[in-house]
Amino acid sequence: MSPKQIPMSSIDRAWLRMDTPENPMMICGILALDRPLSISRLRRTLENRFLCFQRFRQRVVDDGDRAYWQDDPLFHIDNHLHQIALPGKADKAELQKLASDLNSTSLDFRRPLWQMHYIDNYEGGSALVVRIHHCIADGISLVRVMLSLTDKTPEPKLKRVTTKPRAIPKKVSTLQHTLHRLVDSTHAATDQARLFIHSVREDPGYPIKLAATAGGVAMDLIKLGLAPFEPDTHLKSPLSGRKQVSWGEALDLAEVKACAKTLGGTVNDVLLCAATGALQRHFSASNEPAPECGIRVAMPFNLRPLDQPIETLGNQFGLVLVTLPVEVQDPIMCFRQVHENMNRLKRSYQAQVTYSLLDLFGRGPDILERRALDLLSNKASAVLTNVPGPEDALYLAGSRLTQPMFWVPQSGNIGIGISIFSYAGTVQFGITVDKAIHADPQAVMDLFRESFQALSHAALAGRRSGSQHKASRAL
C-alpha cells in the first residue's frame, strides 16, 4: 500500500458504492446570500476553513476489493470552485433549474469529490451551490463543516479552523498487518471480557439485560427483513436519473414549537405530520387513493456523539423506516399516529441494525450490497431527513445567509428526497424528485405549509375547546 493511501472505512465504502447513474450519492445544498461576495475573500475562507479538512484534498482510489483516500497530486481549488451567472431574471426558477441539473450530474471521481458553484446574481444577492459526496461524511458532519465557514458578524477576524493532523500509516508487510490485526483483536476481546466481568460484579442482572438487548436487536433485524414492500403508487417508478428540485416558503419555528407543545409532542413529530399531510394532499390532487397502510420513508438516525470534534468526518448514522399515515385525514389523529410511530422507533434498535448492515456490506462484495440495497429500497417510497441548524443568522465572507437549503441523496430505486432544516427561527423544506415520477416538486412544497396550518389550527381549536370545557365544569 502506498504511504499516502489511507484505507476508507467500511461504512464510507458502502456509501461510495451506492453511487449510480440514476442516483448520484451527493449531498447538495444552496446558501442564498443577501449580497454578492468577493470571490477572492470566498477563496481565502475556503482555503482556511474548508481545505483544512484533509478529505477535501483527497481523491478516492478504488481497487475493487478495497477503497482508499489519497492526496490529489494535482489538487487546485479552481478545479472545484466555479463562478457563474444565472440567465434571464436570475430568480428562484432559474436557480432551481441549475440546482436540478447539478443534482443530476455525478462528481468527477478523478478528483476530490466536491464542487462549489458561486452565483453572483441571484435575486439582488448571490448564492453558493455546494455538492459533496456522501462517502466523505454524513449530513450532521457536513452541516458542521459548512457552518465553520460562517461567522456571527459580517466582518470577523478570519481564523483558521484547526484539526488534528492524521498520521500517515507506515508501509507494512502482509504478515505484519495480519499480526497487528490479531493483536488488536486480542486486546479488544480482553477489554470486552474485563468489562463484562466488571458489569456482572456491579449488577448481577447484567447478563439478563445483555441477552434481552441481543434479543431486541435480533427481533428488529427480523422485522426489517420481513417488512412488506411499499404499495404500488406513482411515487415508485423506474428512475430516469434526471432530478427536479424545489424548496418552499419557510415556516416560523416558534409557531411549530407552539403547535408541538399544545399537542404534547416534539417539533420533529409536527414536521413529520406536515410532510404526511402534504403527501396526503398530493395523492388527492393526483386522483389516486392513499394507501390504506400508509407509506414508509427512510430517515437517517444520528449515532454520532454530540460532543465529537468537528474534524471527525465519515458516516455515523443508521436508517429507520418511518410509516407516514397518509390514509388518516384528520390532522390531530394523524399527529397522534406519527407520534406513536416515532416513539416506537426510538425504543427499537433499527438504526443500530442498519448501521451494522452497512458496515457488513462495505466489507463484502459489491453484488451483495446491490442486492441488499434493492431489497431495502423497495420498502420505502422516499428518503426524509430533518437536520437542526443554527438559531441565529450567520454571515459567509461578509454576506448574510438568508436561506439555506439542501437535498438528501436517494439510493436504490427511491426517487424522492425530502429535507427539513431549521435556521434562524425558521424551518426550511426542500424536495428532489426524479423526473420519471409524476409529481410537481413545487406543488408538493406548497402543500407543506397548507398541511402545517391545518394541524396548527386544529391544535388551537382543540386547546380552546378544552379550556371552555374546563371553565364550564368550574361553573
From TrEMBL:
Residues 314-455 form the O-acyltransferase WSD1 C-terminal domain. InterPro entries: Acyl_transf_WS/DGAT, CAT-like_dom_sf, O-acyltransferase_WSD1-like, O-acyltransferase_WSD1_C, O-acyltransferase_WSD1_N. GO terms for biological process: glycerol metabolic process; triglyceride biosynthetic process. GO terms for cellular component: plasma membrane. This is diacylglycerol O-acyltransferase. It holds the Pfam family WS_DGAT_C. Residues 8-270 form the O-acyltransferase WSD1-like N-terminal domain. It is an enzyme of class 2 (transferase). Transmembrane segments: none annotated. GO terms for molecular function: diacylglycerol O-acyltransferase activity. PANTHER family: O-ACYLTRANSFERASE (WSD1-LIKE) FAMILY PROTEIN, WAX ESTER SYNTHASE_DIACYLGLYCEROL ACYLTRANSFERASE 4-RELATED. NCBIfam families: acyl_WS_DGAT (TIGR02946).
